[in-house]
Amino acid sequence: MSESTMSGMPLPDPLRRRLDTHLDAIDRALAGASVPLSDRRSVTDEVETQVRQTLAERGEGEPTAADLEAVLAELDPPEAYAESVDADAASAAASAASQPARLSRVALWGLVLGFVAPVFNAGAWMVHRARAAHPAARDEFEAASRELENGAVNAASAAADGVGWQTVASVLVVLAAACMMWMVASGMIAAVQISKSQGRLYGMPLAIFNIAFYPFIGLLLLLLLLLAA
Amino acid sequence: MQGWTAQLRKGLVELAVLAALRQSEQYGYELLQHLRTAEGLIVTESTLYPLLARLRRERCVRVRAAPSPAGPPRRYYRLTAAGHDRLRAMISQWHVIREQIDHLLQETQS
Question: If interface means Cβ-Cβ distance under 8 Å, which residues of chain B face chain A?
């Protein structure tokens, strides 16, 4: 099965085929118990390591078919793996069911960041107000804008003089928008996680609130604008 | 009676595996031989290897491959922080259950 993973002395072909048959039977039994491919590969690699080490411990020289059969006879039959996985899955499910349900962290973080958005918006507004209320800064900004419009060469100095105010305000607005979008996205992610958690997660009303809050505010503002117009 | 004993032993395998890996990393067959020495705990490859694969998937153990003198590389298992957390939780549960059962048995005897 895993010829590519072999690093030690290779087995003679007939023994290799016999071992592969055994490993394939284990793989089929595990596949029948819905075990993921990566887990099946991990199990068969372990069984191969065990067989090869046991063969090596049995004596010097090349192992014979009889040696391999003797080693395989000592192992659990392939169907035992499926039974063991079923029992393990039942035990894991019982263990998960006994865990207390917890609030979805994604929904909680969405709510927190969603309500940080107005803080960024307020910050942007305050920067805008401060610039408007500061005549020197406003004049510098307007002068810088004029220089830029007139094709003045010293664009860097213009930027340093006036554009800083705008940059700060723009960054704050972008952060606010990102927080709002994250609130909606987190609501969607949390709703999916909660519905698939089989009772281990709760907070569906919070997830729905996260999804609906800003779209609802947006619609409300749009309606008000239309009514005002 | 045999069914009850088998269920009890199976339920303890995960705790035994995590406890065995607490001190040092071990490869699969080495861990199997180690657990076989524990009297009363029947662990076979069909129980251990799927359990190790699940613990890896659940990020309770980390796997490191290293060359072997015989055959394919050995896969060494080591507990992760999540594995240590799970072990602590299981040990805590184990103590609670054992104390309760001991208490019940003492009441019955007296």
Answer: 10-11, 14, 27-29, 32, 44-47, 49-54, 56-57, 63, 67-75
Return left, alpha or beta for A145; rule: phi > 0 is left, psi -120 to 50 is alpha, else beta: alpha
Write out pLDDT tens, residues B62-79.
999 998 877 788 999 999
Distance (Å, whole) CA A90 – CA B54: 13
In angstroms, the CA A18 to CA A10 distance is: 13
A6 vs B56, B72, B75: nearest CB: B72
Quote the DSSP letter at residue B39: T
pLDDT digits 0-9 by tens, A66-113: 999 999 999 999 999 988 877 666 666 555 555 677 888 898 998 898
The rounded distance, in Å, linking the Cα atoms of A140 and A163 is: 9
Q: Which of A198, A228, A225 is nearest to A99 (CA)?
A: A198
Cα of A178 vs its chain's centroid, Å? 19
Per DSSP, A163 falls in state I
Structure tokens at A212: 């609906």
Q: How far is B24 from chain A (nearest CA, A)?
A: 19
What CA–CA distances, in Å, run from A63 to A56, A86, A88, A175, B42?
A: 8, 35, 35, 68, 29
Which amino acid appears at position B110 of this protein?
Answer: S
The encoded tokens of residue A64 equal: 């014979």
What is the sign of the dihedral through the CA atoms of A84, A87, A93 and A98?
negative
Report pTM: 0.60
